[in-house]
Amino acid sequence: MLRPTNLIFAATSILVVFMIAVVVSKRAGQDGLAPVAEDIRSGTRQELRPAADTGSSKASTTSATTRTHPVIIRQPDGPPRVKLTGFDPQGRSGEVACSTCHSVRQPNLENKTPETLDEFHQGLVVNHGKLACYACHNPEDSDSLKLADGTKVAYQDVMTMCSQCHGPQATAFAHGAHGGMNGHWDLTRGPQMKNNCVDCHDPHSPAYPKMMVGFKPKDRFNAPLADHHDHEGAESHDDH
């Protein structure tokens, strides 16, 4: 028969072991681990996992699903083509590429104005500083452009060539203050559409002509409030 002192000692030992297991499991749970605790009564091992943080999971899901829409910049269809003035026997007209003529002619790197041209492009308005024609046009490939260092540029990428000289305008364009932006300022709500340089500027004469600013017409929506009351009073007086 067990003595009372033995029973008390056994119960105390079991209680101490149980408390140690609880403390260890709590510390392991705080460290983000998956602690293993022993079920004293059944002798089985159970893996204790901390509860999932629903707030952080929702935030990560939201950030993962948030996307931005593209900024679409209009581009030319390709190299310019010259329309033919004549017609074939069937009454059809056509277009030719620049290289159709320029590929069989030696480029004159000194041409700067239409006055120096003896055949084609006469009457063309050119007012773009003191640049020669081949400062922008590629003398080795008339269906493309070139940078100042001679790098070939396709007509679709004409803005790359423009920005090498027009830096302030290119910076303003990148920030949305130039280029006639349409669409959404907040790209999380929708895309943006921007014009190309040559959509608004003539590449041979890019400066806009001076214009006189016109004022909005006066009407009942933008007239001053005092004038509006006087006008109403005059109308009522005329009616009487």
Describe what you observe in this structure.
GO terms for molecular function: oxidoreductase activity. InterPro entries: Multihaem_cyt_sf (IPR036280), Multiheme_Cytochr_ET (IPR051829), Paired_CXXCH_1 (IPR010177). Keywords: Signal. Residues 44-79, 220-240 are annotated as: Disordered. This protein is an alpha+beta fold and 240 residues long. The chain has two domains: 4-50, no CATH class; 71-200, no CATH class. Helices cover 32% and strands 10% of the residues. The chain has helices at 4-30, 54-65, 99-102, 158-163, 167-174, 197-200, 225-239, and strands at residues 36-38, 45-47, 71-73, 81-83, 95-97, 145-146, 152-153, 182-183, 192-194. A three-stranded mixed beta sheet has the order 3-9-8, with no helix packed on it. The protein has a two-stranded antiparallel sheet with strand order 1-2. The chain has a two-stranded antiparallel ribbon with strand order 4-5. A hairpin with an 8-residue loop joins strand 8 and strand 9. The model is unreliable at 32-52 and 228-240 (pLDDT under 50).
